[in-house]
Amino acid sequence: MSERAFSTQLNRKVTATELHFLFQSGILTDIHKFYCLDPACRVPLTAKAVNSSKIPAYFAISHRDSPHISTCFETGITEQKIRFNLKKEKINQLLQSNIIQTFVAPKILQTKYSQESEIRKDKLMSQNNSSTPSYSNSIKEVNKTTSSLEVMVSVFESSIDKTEIIHTSFPFEERQWPNIKKMKIKNTSGKKLLKNIFYPISEMFPYNEFKIFYGEAYLEEKNKTQNSIHFIHNDSIHLYTNKQKLLSLPEKDIIHKALLENIPLLVYCQGAIELIPMSNEEEFRIITVTEQIYRSLFFKNPSDDLNIL
Questions:
Q1: Which superkingdom (predicted)?
Q2: Which of these, 62, 79, 253, 272, has the minimum number of CB atoms within 10 Å of its CB?
Q3: How far is 175 from 180, CA to CA, in rounded Å?
Q4: How far is CA 286 from CA 40, 179, 275, in A?
């Protein structure tokens, strides 16, 4: 259960403690007009128990097939359990279905313009006396599509011969540095064998090509705000990411332990290896699909089984 959400009726954040008053006074009228505040998540939410005098009001996901993303900062224990159960179902669907499955990039961060567009669309639907929008198409799409790296990893590890055909779509988010457009990264979309999507990071690596790289790595506190990730089998490739964001991931417990005890973790990263011009020389770096590096990563203990949560 979430304690706060964005109201498209009021165009502002609303807390769960406000819901009873807002609905009783008529300021809010539709329990479905909310979405998650995490800009990378934004799943539809529904206000619950708004008229109850016994149960405190709260926000819940509107559709079981559309849970919060794994890196959402607004989730509670209930939502995490729902996501885990849905993940296991997806793994079975991906491995047993004859439909070509799709792996897609993490949700692009919403811009202010896109948020305003959604609000205008919502108002237009209200003016046309439309009922609550149908999510049947999106739910159907969820059944054959995943943006969760955690699910992709589980599919990869569960597969026996790893020859399943997977459709991929991984447009790299634009950023101030480095210039993604100049890199012309290859193989970001199209049909691929599962075994060709994942690539062990070693001294020999595909250059300028999208992969889900993986390998054991040590985590180190670089300074007060940054952590570095050093891959054991390729000491020329490093990643640097925000320490606070890293320790807010669902895998935060094993990440914290790895930092304290200096033990390696198995790290998966969606991106491409590029030769980047630095101040004095050029350096190979993994350019992640997302501008915020932590959103393109997944961590697990090397000895873990598939029940990783």
A1: Bacteria
A2: 253
A3: 7
A4: 21, 13, 9
